[in-house]
Specification:
This protein is α/β, with parallel strands linked by helices. Helices cover 32% and strands 25% of the residues. The two termini are 29 Å apart. It is an enzyme of class 2 (transferase).
Length: 439
């Protein structure tokens, strides 16, 4: 019997009506003859509400207690969803992350999964139940509750799918899959029918919000086929696998599961998979860094010790002094404040002139195969931005990605201009946003 893991985000279970709609979809899947495991997020804005509630009590909540508090959101939704499924005549049982065997390290607020022991889940589905698991949470080796950080429910679902050897992991959200750009910015974006893990990783890492980066990494490592689709419609979504050119995923799932996949073949698609954008980037420039061996290494050691994840790096001849360089990096906004403080503290030791922190920037990334080896891709990108009157601040490339940093107030215009320039506009509207968050 085929095993299907389904993950539902907060917008899919935002209220009682939405929960009943999801319950019907689960029951329909079960009655098709599939075993079903469900991972569910907190309802709607529950996590944000809990954060606000904690903030009304204290500005210095212990990390352990914050995780205890935030894990309550998923426990509420898992129990309500189990009730709704039972009400439709199909037995269902809910399980916390601990009960589902999700073991993590002790980094409260951003824990990593270290092992999965879903014995109770396996027994539950063998007994004919739908198993409904709280996403976003687990326990450490001291049995303290931990949370996996934002996007943790995606990671929980893929980890469960891998450990249970599921045939597919369905990620339900409020749009009909992955699109060539965010349909909220580019309403004429096309749905991506099939895509490989590498391209999906690049899109997730560069701002696409439908799938969390950690979940895609997990899926790639354990070869878990993903189907990203909307819980608000019956439309086919986007298939993500090792072999995107064959949506049936033959050789990855058993023959008995093939009725669960579209059966037609596809031809080779365009080089460009899509456009991702990221509003959460900050730019930090060290002006007048001594041009001598060891200076850059020391700087990056300080940044690493501050816990920052660097994205783009550019080094130029200094604009203010001879024999020096200006070193610019970008990183998530949440990492920037601590990084600037750490660099300021080391200013005298390293000998640079100043730290310049800029927050009003956005990143656009063009994702596709053969970006470095395909003549004309860069020229077309830069030409489209030039025609739209958009100045490029920084550039970085990889084999399947070309990213530029632009002014934040021009980011949306940049996405639309590049989307049109590369022929990604649909002839008719394909994208429908059913909810409000895309999660």
């Amino acid at each position: 019997m085929t095993l299907v893991v389904q993950k539902y985000g907060g917008s899919s279970v935002s209220d009682a009506e939405a929960i009943r709609r999801v319950a019907k979809r689960i029951v329909d899947t079960k009655r098709l003859g599939h075993n079903v495991v469900v991972v569910v997020s907190a309802m709607g804005d529950t996590t944000d509400d809990l954060l606000d509630l904690a903030g009304s009590i204290t500005d210095h909540a212990p990390d352990r207690e914050m995780d205890m508090l935030l894990s309550a959101g998923e426990r509420i939704s898992m129990a309500l969803l189990a009730m709704a499924v039972n009400e439709l005549g199909v037995p269902a049982m809910s399980y916390t992350g601990q009960q589902a065997g999700v073991r993590t390290d002790n980094h409260f607020g951003k824990a990593s999964i270290v092992s999965m022991v879903p014995e109770r889940i396996a027994r539950s589905i063998q007994d004919g139940n739908v198993a409904i698991v709280a996403g976003f949470q687990g326990v450490d080796d001291q049995e303290d509750v931990t949370t996996l950080g934002r996007g943790g429910s995606d990671t929980t679902a893929v980890a469960l799918a891998a450990s249970l050897h599921a045939d597919v992991c369905e990620i339900y959200t409020d749009v009909d899959g992955l699109f060539t750009a965010d349909p909220r910015i580019a309403p004429n974006a096309k749905r991506i029918r099939t895509i490989d893990y590498e391209s999906t990783l690049e899109m997730a890492a560069n701002g696409a919000k439908i799938l969390h980066l950690r979940a895609v990494e997990f899926a790639r490592r354990y070869h878990v086929p993903l189907h990203v689709r909307s819980s608000f419609s019956e439309k086919e979504g986007t298939w993500i696998s090792d072999k995107p050119a064959n949506p049936a995923l033959k050789g990855i799932v058993p023959q008995s599961a093939l009725n669960y996949y579209p059966q037609e073949d596809t031809v080779e698609g365009p080089i460009i998979s899509g456009i991702a954008h990221d509003r959460s980037q900050d730019k930090i420039t060290l002006v007048g860094v001594p041009d001598k061996p060891g200076s850059a290494a020391h700087i990056f050691e300080i940044i690493a010790a501050a816990g920052a994840n660097i994205d783009m790096i550019v080094q130029n001849v200094s604009t203010i002094q001879k024999g020096a360089t200006d070193l610019t990096v970008t990183m998530p906004h949440d990492d920037a404040k601590a990084t600037v403080a750490a660099l300021e503290a080391a200013k005298g030791e390293i000998g640079f002139a100043a730290v310049v922190h800029t927050g009003n920037v956005g990143k656009l990334s063009l994702v596709g195969a053969g970006m470095r080896t395909n003549p004309g891709v860069s020229a077309k990108l830069f030409g489209a931005l030039s025609e739209a009157g958009i100045n490029i601040d920084m550039i970085s490339t990889s084999e399947i990605r070309l990213s530029v940093l632009v002014s934040l107030d021009q980011l949306d215009d940049a996405v639309r201009a590049v989307h049109t320039a590369f022929g990604l506009d649909a002839s008719e509207t394909e994208a429908v946003v059913y909810g409000g968050t895309g999660r």
